[in-house]
Amino acid sequence: MDNARDLCKPFSAAVDLYRMLENMADDTISEALCLNAQEIQALEGCPACFGPRPPNLADYSAKTRDKLIICFDGNFQHRHHTKAGRQYRPIENPRIFVPPADFTQMQEAIRAREVADTAPEKADRCADSHKAADDKRNESTWKGCDDTGLMGACCHHDAAIMMVNIYKSGEQRCFPVTMLNKLLTQCEGDRQVGILYDIGCLLDKYMDARGILEEYRPRLSFGTSVFHAYVHNWICQLDYHPRLNDGWGLSDGEGLERLWSYLSPLVSALRYATRNHRLAAIAHRLKYHNWKGKRDLPKWLKNKFTSAVKRRHEASGVLVGLSVMRNRHVATGANYTNPSSKINGRRNACFKNNTPKPKRIVEEVVVELLRKRLQGPEIFLSTEQEVLDLLASITGHSEALRRQLDELTGEPEMRSVVNGTFASHLYPFSGPPLWPDPLDDSLDEESKLLLLLWDAKAELFVQAVHHQAENRPITDSKTIGAHTGTRIKENVFKAQQTRKPAVKKYIKTFNRRYLDYITRYPDQTLSDAADYPLTYEEFIEFPMDHRFWNDGLYYHSKAPWAIDANVRAGITATLTLCRVEEEFDLLAQELCRAIGWGVAYYNRLFNTIGSLQGRLATLNLGNVPLEPDHIDAITLYGVAGKTRYKLLSKELSRRLETHGAQMDEWSETVIWLWNRCQPRGNRGFISNWNEMIRKIRNGNITLAQEGEAEVDEQLESTVLEVEVDDGEDVDVALISEVEGAVAEENEVL
After folding, report:
1. Contact 471, 492 (CB under 8 A)
2. Contact 646, 617 (CB under 8 A)
3. Contact 351, 235 (CB under 8 A)
4. Per the domain annotation, does 497 fall within a domain?
5. Closest CA to 513 of 553, 467, 561, 464
6. What is the pTM of this model?
7. DSSP 194
8. What is the pLDDT of residues 493-545, one digit of tens each?
């Protein structure tokens, strides 16, 4: 061959054919075993999430009982150039990808709901905080692309459950709603499902307001992923932060971020592949990712268990230390007590409106409608008097909201330090500005200094979020055992060193302004002087829930929880203990489901092999008729009779051996976990597992194994009547052009 690239076509065809045969084999075995949708998800996805239901659900708290936790997220790095490849074959959708027709159907249903509900959609600043939620901000990035990204769903254990190929659009609402609707059909009909999503708050409010998936709403709960929660305003965090709300355990909702990192080597290569090759390559890598996750599942559960034990020990130590300290906020001089009651006070004090949720939603819609009408009253109103009446109504409503905020905060003269996003949402129309100019003479000196100090701290918070994002690969390697190579670590450290001078500058500004404030007002109680002067080394060690980010300077309240570091530490410790107890419940149920799946799948393989060998034995007897069953209905392209039974029996035996070896590898860690995190009432459930392990170690003896070593000669000569071409062409000219551009760039460098 004159051109080495000529080898690409047959090699590509061989890979296509191999993957096709592998997928056909998996589908055939699933059909032979009569697996339903949930059992297929357990086999190909996560057995700890989709395995059989534990027999002892009554032993668990209602907050976590039978709960499935799923993460949603989008990624716009996995794009595909429109001109990359000659498309002469229709798009083949791998099973893990949701068919496009499902989205079209859901999109039509959503539009019908929107037409029926004429209430205007409320602007949501949480959505604006995420560029992925705004198509307009990404149009320049998508220029020249047909497939613009991916959206996915993964479980609590980072296994990929389903994927969406985004075609010429952004992160539309129909994508998560369609995946959620499909997911609800793949688990038990009454199972509770929790969704962690960057903009889970927005999705929850939208589905609730439009009545989408109404029949499932009692089973659904929504939250924001832990890392992204900090870009939401505090009101949103109180309702959706998984560390502040019940039922989430220690789930962080960042599984898809780790999955995108795992898929990142495919980004550049697949931009110039054909569309079919792109989808097939992603599906194949996800299949391997899930296989590795299933292999290491007991180790993952053990790591999470030991991490939860450590956090419980640390939180308990904090509470024990507080119990011997005098509480300076009570007149009796008693020591600190369990701060659980203060948690509710913290919720209510932080601008939490106690009106029922439907009423709050109606009020928010009314305010948004008034804003739009005020911008162009001539469109809606016909007389001058109507305009005056509208302005009077707006002023009255705004003053009512202002009074509510005064009552909740108890500090009407200091509203300037309220979170700006929420405040500007409350007061969009009239009255004094919520963010006054520090140079305004009408402000008292303390308010000016506080505003400057808050601004410096807000800048530091932005830097903290960047640092946590950059440091995430190293953090994951310590907490969940994710592999982090030397190159990744070097990139992380390089990024941190690049950002270090800017961070130090912000720290210096904060220290200077804090000194100005504390010098003028030495008796202040809004912040803890223990964190001053702040250093870079201390700053980078602060977690996002550190007391430094949770004091009176942020919330602008002088309640004990805001000004006393001990009270805040107690609240954080109590919340941590609540989440840890939930984590233990979730881990116990997940372990039980994983064990139940391991035993059930082993027995299904074992019994199906026995049935096939029984039918073979009957055929060997001669003129004994056999009743047709589901095995005879499986499409095997001309393979029938004894050959069909031998073929399936041999493949099932191979899979039984592989599954048995995997369960044997699981066994030691499973027993370790079972003795530590399982309720006593369910300890006997392990007997089925022990019986399976005994069979595996005795050699998987089945009914009759003779004759399995060879396949009938008829099988050897069977030709698969499948139309297979020699692979799709990649646009060679386009790739050569790109490679030439890279070579020229290297010469310039």
Report:
1. yes
2. no
3. yes
4. yes
5. 553
6. 0.73
7. E
8. 787 788 888 888 988 998 888 888 888 887 766 666 667 788 888 888 887 76
| Long-range contact set of residues 181-189: C-beta below 8 Å, sequence gap at least 24 | 181/106, 181/213, 181/216, 182/98, 182/102, 183/70, 183/153, 184/213, 184/216, 184/219, 185/37, 186/37, 186/38, 186/41, 186/50, 187/38, 187/41, 187/50, 187/68, 188/38, 188/53, 188/66
Residues in the chain where the model's pLDDT stays below 70:
1-5, 85-88, 118-142, 339-444, 472-485, 487-488, 524-530, 545, 547, 550-558, 561-563, 700-749
Q: How far is CA 632 from CA 325, 488, 603, 604, 639, in A?
A: 75, 52, 21, 18, 10
Give yes or no: residues 254 and 164 share one domain. Answer: yes
Tokens of residue 409, six digits: 């905060």
Task: Name, in order, each residue with C-beta under 8 angstroms of 689's C-beta and a sequence gap of 6 or more.
Answer: 595, 598, 599, 667, 670
Q: How far is CA 135 from CA 139, 148, 168, 633, in A?
A: 7, 11, 10, 47
Q: Are both 348 and 227 inside the same structural domain?
A: no
Identify the helix (H) or strand (E) that includes residue 555. helix 552-555
Number of independent structural domains in the chain: 2
Same domain? 485 vs 549: yes
pLDDT tens digits, one per residue of 601-611: 999 999 999 99
Residues 6+ apart with CB under 8 A from 557: 349, 350, 409, 410, 411, 563
Token reading at 295: 């292999």
Q: What's the count of helices (H) and strands (E) in the chain, helices before strands? A: 30, 6
**So what's the pLDDT on residue 335?**
79
3-state secondary structure of 157: coil
The answer to whether residues 321 and 415 belong to one domain is: yes
Q: How far is CA 84 from CA 141, 165, 273, in A?
A: 17, 17, 6
Work out the burial of residue 354: count CB atoms within 10 Å of its CB; fewer than 13 is exposed, 13-18 middle, 19 or more buried: exposed
DSSP designation for 479: H
Q: Could you say which DSSP state residue 149 is in?
A: E
- 6 lies in some domain: no
Cα dihedral 134, 135, 139, 143 in deg (nearest 10): 140
* pLDDT computed for residue 65 by the predictor: 93
DSSP string over 72-117: EEEESSS-EETTSS---S-----TTBPPHHHHHHHHHHHHHHHHH-
| Whether 412 and 551 share a structural domain | yes
Question: How far is it, in rounded angstroms, from Cα 271 to Cα 146?
Answer: 10
> 174 — phi, psi (to 5°)?
-65, -20
Same domain for 233 and 151: yes
Structure tokens at 509: 């500004």
> Where a domain ends, among 559, 577, 595?
577
Q: Indicate whether 540 belongs to any domain.
A: yes
d(CA 450, CA 456): 10
Retrieve residue 490's tokens: 């070097």
Give the per-residue pLDDT at 404.
53
The whole-angstrom separation of Cα 310 and Cα 197 is 27
β-pair partners for 72: 153, 197
What is the radius of gyration, based on Cα positions, of the chain? Answer: 30
Residues 6+ apart with CB under 8 A from 681: 56, 59
The parent domain of residue 326 ranges over: 312-577
Write the burial class of residue 318 (CB in 10 Å: 0-12 exposed, 13-18 middle, 19+ buried).
Answer: middle
DSSP character at residue 37? H
- Say yes or no: 252 and 343 in one domain: no
β 160-167/145-155 pair status: antiparallel
Cα–Cα nearest to 274, from 91, 521, 151, 1:
91
Domain shared by 282 and 357, yes or no = no
Pairing of strands 220-223, 192-197: parallel
- Of 539, 562, 577, which closes a domain? 577
pLDDT at residue number 306: 95
